[in-house]
Specification:
3 helices; mainly alpha
């Protein structure tokens, strides 16, 4: 994410619950993914969890970027 997108998040997230929720979820998924990826060996359940987290993060980021793109067009 570039600086302009982060500035848009700072500006609009407090007044847009969906944007705030998507950003909070993105950060949470990122932390969970980093924690799992820092392990040397993952159990099959952890591998599945990691795969699911990455999928959710990507889906959320896609929606987040759609919102940010529409905000860029307004500004």
């Amino acid at each position: 994410m570039d600086q302009h997108e982060l500035e848009l998040l700072e500006k609009y997230a407090p007044e847009d619950p969906e944007l705030k929720s998507l950003w909070d979820d993105h950060l949470l998924y990122e932390k969970q993914i980093e924690k799992l990826e820092s392990k040397k060996i993952l159990t099959p359940a952890e591998q599945q969890t990691l795969k699911q987290l990455k999928k959710q993060k990507l889906e959320g980021k896609t929606r987040l970027m759609d919102i940010l793109d529409s905000l860029k067009k307004r500004n």
